[in-house]
Specification:
Helix content is 29%, strand content 18%. By secondary structure, it is of the alpha/beta class. The protein has a 6-stranded mixed β-sheet, with helices on both faces.
Amino acid sequence: MDRRAAFALTPPARRGAPGSLDMLYLVRHAHAVPEEEDPERPLSLQGATECTQLIRFFRSNGALPGLQFWHSPLARSRQTADRLAAALAPDAVRLETPGLLPEDDPEPTARRLDTLGTEAAIVIVGHEPHLAHLASLLLTDRAKPAVIDLPKGGVLALRRKKMPHRKTAHPRWQLCWMVVPSLLADTPAPGG
């Protein structure tokens, strides 16, 4: 059985109330060069390959329909966001967003997501452990312990549920799917 068959992803339907964010995609930046090689830590050749694999995969199924790509100020995050947005959503807004550094508290980002007045899907390209803590906060209403381990180049899709968390009334999110680079290592080009 083709292991990619389990990932027959479809783009999300426009759901929910007008003015609400329904889908969120968390993307850990692709592989970067070591700090000793370049202190700015841009994407490595492996990272460029990971981005290409993600692009091929998502072009074939349309399951990463981001209209806004948020990224941290770090080169590896910005470059991953730029590559994905340029290939998958050329008209998407790309925003360097505060609060997305590796050790940042995920709470401000989660609360910002609560207030967005858009139906557009958001793609957040960031770092660990921030993304794992953000995902945990959205899924369980607690940032720690992390319930997700997102590898470099991994993508996690979350959908906002209708019912909020009972204790805090924060929006509740549901895990829809996760794609990791090891699943895409032999993904053929579309039509190939």
